[in-house]
Write a structure and sequence with these properties.
The chain has 155 residues and is an alpha+beta fold. The chain has a single domain, classed as Gamma-glutamyl cyclotransferase-like (Hypothetical upf0131 protein ytfp, Roll), CATH 3.10.490.10. 23% of the residues lie in helices and 39% in strands. The protein is built from four helices and five strands, in the order βαββαββαα. It has a five-stranded mixed beta barrel. A hairpin with a 7-residue loop joins strand 2 and strand 3. The termini are far apart. 32% of the residues are buried. The mean pLDDT is 96.
């Protein structure tokens, strides 16, 4: 920890699982820890403003489902920088979730992003390029979850 700074857990389930993308967005590569969010489902229903029919990752509550991702410990300044990249408050909003640290069974409270309902559309698909950002996080995901991502139909 750095004296005088506060840090929070951030749970990435979308393109921020890509280590290179995170490094560019916050200026460093924080430690990456595998995490699982229980009773939520991964969807690609956050409408792209640039590519018709394209959807970005989003999560929605769903009993019995689970979303795997990456936990990062970020400073308040780094979270504010992510807010800018995620389009807070117009496209996504911060949401607090309880995430299980894989391998330890410990649960931490983390910030994640959930798409604003006005930006959600049905029938969207991610682009191959976008899905590849999620797959770049495969080192922090189970083999089964990676297979599920690989099976996602893209534009």
């Amino acid at each position: 920890m750095v004296y005088g700074k506060t840090f929070s857990w951030y749970f990435a389930y979308g393109s921020n699982m890509d280590a290179e993308r995170m490094k560019k967005r916050v200026g460093r590569l924080p430690d990456r820890i595998s995490g699982a969010l229980r009773n939520w489902r991964l969807e690609f229903n956050k409408a792209s403003k640039d590519v018709p029919g394209a959807g970005f990752a989003n999560i929605a509550p769903c009993l019995g489902e689970g979303v795997e991702g990456v936990l990062y410990l970020l400073s308040d300044e780094e979270l504010q920088e992510l807010d800018r990249h995620e389009g807070v408050p117009h496209h996504y909003k911060r949401h607090q979730v309880c995430v299980e640290r894989q391998g330890t069974g410990k649960v931490v409270t983390a910030v994640t992003y959930v798409a604003n309902s006005g930006k959600v559309r049905s029938g969207l698909k991610p682009t191959r390029k976008y899905l590849n950002h999620l797959l770049a996080g495969a080192d922090c995901l189970s083999e089964e979850y990676v297979r599920r991502l690989q099976a996602v139909e893209t534009l």
